[in-house]
Amino acid sequence: MTDSTSSASRLSLELATPAATGCLGVALADVLRPGDVLALQGDLGTGKTALCRAYIRAAVGDPAEEVPSPTFTLVQVYDTPGWAIWHYDLYRLEQPEDAYELDIEDAFEEGVALIEWPDRLGRLLPRRAIHLTLIQTGETSRRVDVEAQPHLLSRLSAAFTAAQAAAK
Ligand SMILES: Nc1ncnc2c1ncn2[C@@H]1O[C@H](COP(=O)(O)OP(=O)(O)O)[C@@H](O)[C@H]1O
Ligand SMILES: [Mg+2]
């Protein structure tokens, strides 16, 4: 884990179907570790929650795990065998400091934090955050641009390819 994104690189992945987004969730479960922060950008309906759901189900090891959007609760917490996952939707956060009441410090230190609408955190968003931007390219297709350290991107890319091959 590093606290700088100064040497961050970019990776673009085509998510041609919702199943491909599911495979990216599986790939994320392969590479994310405690202390990782995923900042998920993209317009409403681009698949931020869908991707988080796929990741959480893979990380928890239960494809039937209920993963509601934290639209109103702002945060939902899940236990994996190794650590907790904090899933935030901060669209309704009025000011960055309000995130302290949502245990954001614990999430950043002890678990994996998934954050929809990360701009609401302002300067409280850790500089080490991995940035994912989802873009709608068709009714059922998306593209995701990932900005992170090069070593993480190459592991993610390999895990995504493997997950897609395994799903065939
Ligand atoms: N390739 C795809 N990847 C992810 N979601 C997709 C895809 N194609 C269609 N969708 C649909 O887009 C919607 C995304 O909704 P959601 O995940 O709640 O978006 P957000 O959290 O970004 O507002 C879902 O209805 C999902 O089924
Ligand atoms: Mg959402």
UniProtKB/TrEMBL annotation:
Nucleotide-binding as UniProt keyword: yes
Localization: Cytoplasm
GO CC annotation: cytoplasm
Record keywords: ATP-binding, Cytoplasm, Magnesium, Metal-binding, Nucleotide-binding, tRNA processing
Keyword flag RNA-binding: no
MF terms in GO: ATP binding; metal ion binding
Domain of life: Bacteria
GO biological process terms on file: tRNA threonylcarbamoyladenosine modification
Entry's family note: Belongs to the TsaE family.
Protein name per the record: tRNA threonylcarbamoyladenosine biosynthesis protein TsaE
Organism this protein belongs to: Insolitispirillum peregrinum
